[in-house]
Amino acid sequence: MLRQTEGRQDEEVALITSASPQRLPAAAWLGANRAGWGIESGLHQRLDVSHNDDRCRVRTDQALFLFGAYRRIANSLFAEWRQHQRRPDHVTTTDFQSLMGEEHKAKAIRLVLNKRPSLKTLS
């Protein structure tokens, strides 16, 4: 299929599918193609940008699992913390990581060790 966009050169694109051409008109093809990018532009993009996920050189299965779990936990904590900020659309994971690293990571340690942890009072 030829993709034509304003301001960019036309390009040939493909979608591998078992659907016949009659069952996949142009609008459905476009929807399937965009849906495939949802993973890349969602959580994966956040993990890669914020935690350098694609640069990780860990290779053992157990270590990959643990690093992945910790990154996802950190991302979930950030999402919760962000909801309690005055301007949530203006804070980034880097802001959250910097906050957790302040005072020799004391805030992060308090968050983990507290009986009733709260992200509301960290700022």
Please count the helical segments. 3
**Strands, total number:** 2
| Major beta sheet summary | 2 strands, antiparallel
Average pLDDT works out at: 84
Strand order of the largest sheet: 1-2
Q: Over the alpha carbons, how many angstroms does the gyration radius reach?
A: 21 Å
Give the H and E element order. Answer: EEHHH
Tell me the fraction of residues in β-strands, as a range. under 5%
Nutshell version of this structure?
With 123 residues, the chain is mainly α.
What this model shows, in words?
The protein contains 3 helices and 2 strands. It is mostly helical. The longest helix has 26 residues, at about 25-50. It is elongated, with a radius of gyration of 21 Å. The N and C termini lie far apart (about 50 Å).
